[in-house]
Write a structure and sequence with these properties.
There is one protein chain. By secondary structure, the chain is an alpha+beta fold. The chain folds into 2 domains: about 5-100, Serine-tRNA synthetase, tRNA binding domain (Helix Hairpins); about 115-415, 2-Layer Sandwich (BirA Bifunctional Protein, domain 2). It is about 40% helix and about 20% strand. It has helices at about 5-10, 10-20, 25-60, 65-100, 135-145, 150-155, 165-185, 200-205, 230-235, 290-310, 355-360, 385-395, and strands at about 120-125, 145-150, 160-165, 190, 195, 215, 220-225, 240, 250-255, 275-285, 315, 330-335, 340-350, 360-365, 370-375, 375-385, 400, 415. An 8-stranded mixed beta sheet has the order 1-11-12-13-16-10-9-4, with helices on both faces. A 3-stranded antiparallel beta sheet has the order 5-7-6. Strands 8-14-15 form a 3-stranded mixed beta sheet. Strand 14 (about 360-365) and strand 15 (about 370-375) form a beta hairpin. Helix 3 (about 25-60) runs antiparallel to helix 4 (about 65-100). The chain is elongated, with a radius of gyration of 27 Å. The protein starts with a helix and ends in a 6-residue tail after the last strand. The model has no long low-confidence stretch (mean pLDDT about 90). The protein binds one RNA strand through helix 3 and helix 4. Belongs to the class-II aminoacyl-tRNA synthetase family. Type-1 seryl-tRNA synthetase subfamily.
Amino acid sequence: MIDPVLLRTDPEAVKRSQRARGNDEAVVDQALAADEARRAALAEFESLRAEQNQFGKQVKAASKEEKPALISQAQALAARVKDAEARAKEAEALFGEIAMRVENIVIDGVPAGGEENFVTLREVGEIPGFDFEPRDHLELGELLGAIDMERGAKVSGARFYFLRGVGARLELALMNMALDRALANGFTPLITPTLVRPEVMRGTGFLGDHASEVYHLPEDDLFLTGTSEVALAGYHADEILDLAEGPLRYAGWSTCYRREAGSHGKDTRGILRVHQFNKLEMFVYADPAEAEAEHDRLVAWQEEMLQSLGLGYRVIDVAAGDLGSSAARKFDIEAWVPTQGTYRELTSTSNCTTYQARRLATRFRTESGKTAPVATLNGTLATTRWIVAILETHQRADGSVTVPEALRPYLGGLEVLEPLGRA
RNA sequence: GGAGAUAUGCCGGAGCGGCCGAACGGACUUCACUGCUAAUGAAGGGUCGGGCUACAACUCGACCGGGGGUUCAAAUCCCCCUAUCUCCGCCA
């Protein structure tokens, strides 16, 4: 939800943002009109209500003889109040509905346009070169006995898999390494529910355009989360936080579920795009004034992870039209995947400014003592997909894979993953 | 799965259908007093929104788990939902 005051005082800014996203700017005028109608209806209801409250006092004070007449008057008034209240509620709901359609105000400097209009901020690390024909991650995964897609499909269908042996260990190692980094940076670890109520799913903005991405359990009216961001955002819903000591940082560890509807035929090989995976997610509640600086910190922590793992990558500033509805700016880090000859997204970090918090009623106490919505930010610190880049980048001619040094402590000192036949 | 109880402000805890935004206690803030800490005395507080505006003051409305209803009037009566607790059963 955008700030209704901003809508009222600077509708041009809202329109500009809508344009940058390639969204309809007519909703801004609709929202403006709905806001005015809402306030008018509210004022009418409230003045009638005030009159009714006065009446109540008179009735109570009235003598036996006066009472019947007063009550019959009050009855008539009560009917009008009820009517006005209904209209006010309706106007309120209409405004809410229209205002919800306006996506978060894009931060100045975010490139306008669609998916292909991103700006590359920097490229870091080496693009690996091989003096042999590199194998893709699935071939390597099968050689190592680490990834089993066939049995995944047998048990659960397409886009499901088993991680086994060093594959399973590799994922846990990655997650644990990320957790240690998070702890070192002051994050509180949180293992989150992966089934959430509709309000929470809606509050985080995932039931808008991305509704078809989300698994729903109709029997229980619960949603399977595609990221722990959902539960982490809901964690402090309806609360007033104390941010005097700085931002609240959480690291959510959870399995993530995505339907991948509409991506049939895309990335069907291996574990690049799957229905279920694990992720360690950073989530921060911050003073809006600090949000952009915190966003930079989140990217920096992500980059440290990628660097430690010896992966070549680029950081991109995602274009406005490719942002989720809650994000005001998003940086993706894409790692080089040798057999695809291209960069693929490994992490994503979004600054949602106050958009999510306003929907979920998460506020903080400002210096003046007033409450104001917090800013929320999130970013990936590790996820199953990274295995793709790690295997491919560090492979050797014989199908073995060198374990990046930083990861070795989490694999019991293992330095090389050896193909099964030889190990 | 069955039966019952509870849900009030930062916390504890009252509350007859109008006098309740809500007693009382604690915590907190401010002031006074005490050589400091402590103790004591006094005062003050919530959230959301509208009007008006200097985002002040003022004023109006809403909020007693959530949603409906009854009534001139509901924290107080009725219905539904949710959560928590206790007991029985069932299963890890």
